[in-house]
Each structure stands twice: as structure tokens, then as C-alpha cells.
Model the fold of this input.
Amino acid sequence: MYKIIKYVLHDIFRNRILLAYVVLLSLSSFGLFMMNEDVSKGISSLLTVLLIVVPMVSILFTTIYFFNSYEFIELLVAQPLKRSNILLGVYSGVGLSLLAAFWVGIGLPIIIFDGTVVGWYFLLSGSLLTMIFVSLAFLASVLTRDKTRGIGISMLLWFYFTLIFDGILLMVLFAFSDYPLEKLTIFLSCLNPVDLARIMILLKMDISALMGYTGAVFNQFFGSSLGIVISISVMLIWVAVPIAIALRIFERKNL
Amino acid sequence: MPRIVKLNNRRLFINPIFNVIALLILLFNPTANVLAREITVKPGTKTNTIQKAISMAQNGDVIKVAKSTYFIEELIIDKSVNLIGLDFPVLDGLNKGNLIIIRASHVTIKGFVIQNSGISNIKDKAGIRVEKGDSVNIIGNRIENTCFGIYLAKVNCGTIRDNTIHGINSVIQSGNGIHLWYSHHINIHNNKISGQRDGIYFEFATHCEISNNLSENNHRYGLHFMFSNNDNYTFNTFRNNGSGVAVMYTKHITMTNNTFEQNWGSSSYGLLLKDISRSVISNNTFSKNTSGIYMEGTSQVKAEHNNFLNNGLAIRMLADCEKDTFMLNNFIGNTFDFTTNGSENLNYLKGNYWDKYSGYDLNHDKKGDIPYRPVSLYSQIIEKLPSAVFLLRSFIAELLDKAERALPSLSYVNLYDNEPSIKIIRP
Done:
């Protein structure tokens, strides 16, 4: 398995797309930090990058990489290796390289310019989001054998988590607006890792003062150490569950 | 003299009476400085307490106090004297009651360190308390660790200038820095106030000038006034106060060139206006407040040439405001420019600069060709559904605002700036 990880890392680090991703992230983060005199404003603008670009690149890059190295995987399957080890090896390789890209592109500027609690929350949530979307990409990839369909499913998943889910949520909130919904929204936010990451970071930022009563309820939950443990655990579940399902499917799949 | 006698005999008779009257006026007129004595208070001399000096003094005298520490409690000044501290003598109230109580007109208190008043939840204990005196001057004092700093009740005419007031920093027990009740024509200039409940508090105080003061880090409001008409506020700074500045139930006030900044917190305002009418708010800067201006029940308020920078909500205007005008203001970097809670809005916006405006200017008259709607669709949704604030900074919230620009009919609030400025407005 370690050999597979090593090989995948070696393969990806030669890849120009990953380099482009690093450059994009560092350009946007350095640019935003230098343009805004106020560091917290830079972080606030970077939040959009974190919530939209990072998941998208993670899920698309992984899916495309999976299908591009499909023949290599088939070759590995022919060897006396456990299938779960093969998939986990590739998963770890891709995940680690994307994490490295995230830390170089966004982590470094944040540590240089910010270095506050918000920054660390930002990096923690970003890392978890990266791993979650790599997991989801593997799930999308093993569901089908066709590259185009795989990418389609990935795009749909990304679209669902960044936009459609929130749209549905808004409609649900409207439909049940006569009821107190603050506690419910805490639960609902656990169903979408992007929302969870956003709330976790927002509550640490100045802007949370705008959130009124809802913000107070959120703060009570996410501000407590129990709340932080719960939300990080939920994020970890979001990492584990898709890849676990992908493993089950991959083990039984007729390649 | 013989010539006068020659001209009119009766003049000789009247003249001495005039002379006596003139002498009497000279003797008893408190403002006549010709006869003012100077009494020096110094430890080790005959007049070693201020109390003794005051009992010796007559109206118009100057009492100079040498540098030392004097323990006083409820020092009552009932004569028109000038109390002047040399090199900041310390008046210590030993945490008992009021320090100085003024019950006379034409009193000046200058150059003291006044510290440690009593603290009470029932009685307002102050560093300097003025009761029914006119023309009172309080100049250049350092007031520290008092419940109320300067307390004026029923005072006509006066100056409060160059004082530094720092309160006891207790959320529950501290009083107001400068407290005016039923006082008129007071000039409050260049004071620094911090650590109090309200920095400056006015109730029924009219025709006052408040300029160049700094009020910061107070627990409640930097400036708080009610029922205080015809006052002018210029060049003051209100910074990082618990809830910002609140002005209520007042008309004919002018607030110009003030700075309201860093009043940040879930129930904090740069400037809270409640039932204010016929007033002018111009050339002020509102930066980094949760709400720049919060308006409730205002009418005919004119806001011009103000800068709203990096606020959470630049302006929150409830639907009961009417005939207010916003012209030539800059709105830059605010999360929400304008929020309101009704669909009809009877106020008037014109020629403001909005950084979120994405229109064009084909005829180059520096006015945008399409109207700007400052109330965003997402803020309207939050208004109907407070828990939708959950989606703050999410992709869908941004998308909703973009959609509203493409399809203005989605928006239900009828509030436009018909001639938004293309460039930042410089006064």
C-alpha cells in the first residue's frame, strides 16, 4: 500500500494541473491579503474560495485522476494485492497531494498574514473539506465505468453540496417558518459539510454579530467544546462514509 | 466743578448720591474683579483646607489650591468663586459621596485631579455636581474613579472643557461621564471620557454645543440623549462603546463631522436614532459598526456626505421612518447597505455612491443610468425568515442577489437610488 501511495504521489507531483491549482490558490490568497489592509477582510474573501473552489477542484481532479489511472488500477488488481489496499492507497495518494496543495496555496499565506484562531479554523475546515470531496469523488468514480458519467456525477455532487442543498434548505425553512427552526438548522447543517465548515468559520469571525438570534443559538452549540468535537466528528464521518461505500462497491465490482 | 454749579445748582445736590450708588454696585457686584481677593490653600498654612478657604471667601474671589492631596467629602461651593488648582492637586473623596457640590452661579473649577467618589445604586454620586448654578466652568480636570464624572442639574450656561474622565469600569455600578439634566446652553469641548456607563448623557438639555470630544470604551452608550432639542454635535469620536450612540425623542439636532467606529457586537449601533425629527447628519464617518445607523420612527432627517465603511449593516431603517433624505453618501465595503422591514418606504435616496452598484453610465454625467436598489434580495429574505441568516456568505446568498439584479421584479421593497453616483463622492 505504501508503494502505491508513493507511486501516486510521484505521479501527481509531476502533474501540471496540481501545480496550476497551487498557483491559483496562492495567487488568490496572497492577492486578497495584500489588497485588503484588514486581514479579517482577506479571510472573509478567501472564504468564498474555500467553499467553492476547493471542493470543486478536489472532486474534479480526483475523478479525472481516477479514470486516467484506470489502467494502472486494473493492472494492480491483477497482482496479488487486496483490492481495499489498492483503493485506499490511491485514495491516500490523491488526498495527501491535494492536502499539500491546499496547505501550500492557502495554509502558508494564512499562517504568514493571519495566524489567529479564525485562521486555524479555516485551515482545519479546508483540510477536512478537501478530504471529504476526495472521498466523494472516489464514490462517484466507482459507481460507473464511464469517465464522462463519472465526471458528471462528481459535478452533480459538487453542485448539490454548494448550491442545491442550500436552496432546498431555504425552501424548508420557508415552509416551516412558523416553528422555531434554530435547533433544526444546526442538525440540517450537519447534512452538508460545506455548510458546516462555513458556520464553523463564520462564528469565529466578526461577521457573526450580524446573525442575531440564530447566531446566538449557533454560538451556544458550536462555541462549546462539545459542539466543536461534534462538528469535527461529523466532518470526519463525511470523510469516512463515502470512501467506505466506495470500498465496498470496488471490492465487489466487476472491473 | 464750579462751572457745573454755575450751570445748574441742583446737580451739586444729586452728585453724591450717584457716587454712593456707584460704589455700592462696585462692592456687591460679583463679576467685578477689581476687588477680588486671592486666597491660597496650602497644607501647613492657616487655610489648609478648601472648606476653610470657601468659608472665608466672598463672591468673586479666587481660591488657588497648592499641589497636595486633600481629602474632601461633599465640599459645597455656595459662593461665586474660582477654584484653581496649581499643578493638579488631588481631591480624594475616599469613596464616600459626591466630591464637589456647586450651588452658586459663576463658579470655575480648573486644574484638579478629582478621584474616588462614593458608589451607590440609589444616589447619583459624582465628581463634580452642579445644582442650579448658572455660568459654571469646569476646565482641565482629571476625574478618575468616580461614579458620575460631571453632573449638571438645572444649569444655564456653562463650559465643560479639556477634562479627562475615566470611570470605575464596572458594568453595573458605573454612572455617566458627563451627565446633563435640565440644563441649557452648555458648551462641552475637547473632553476624553472612558470606562463609564454612558460617556455623555443628556436629558432635557437644549441649545448645547458638543465638540471635539472622545468617548470610548464605555459600557453602554458613547453618547446618549433624550428630549434634548437644538443641540449641535461636531467633530466628536465615539469608539468601541458597548452599544454605540443612542439619540431618542429629539428634534432639531445637528450632527456633523463625527466619527462612529468599532461599535461591534450583536446589539451594537454606530448611531441609533429613535423618534428623531428635523435633524441633520452630515459629513460623519461610520466605520466597522454592526449597524451604521439604526433608524426607528424618524422623520425629516437629512443625511448627507457621510461615509459608511465596512459596517455589517450600513443603514437599518424601519418602515415607520418617513421623509428622510440620504444624499451624496458613500457606501463602501458594507455587508448589507440597507435593510428595512416593510415593502413601502417613504424616504428619499439620491446621488449616493454604492460600491455594489454594477450599472453603467453611457452619457457620462457621472450618474448611473439604471437605479440602484440598496435593499438586497437576500436581506429581504432574512427579514421574512430570520433563520435564513444561516446562509450568510454562502453561494446561494450571493446568487440570489445576482438573480435580483437580472430580474428586479423578484424584489418587493420599493426603495431606489435613481441617480447613483459612479465615483466615490469627495466633499
In short: Chain A is about 85% helix and 0% strand. Chain A touches chain B through 35 residues (CB under 8 Å). Residues 2-252 of chain A form one domain.
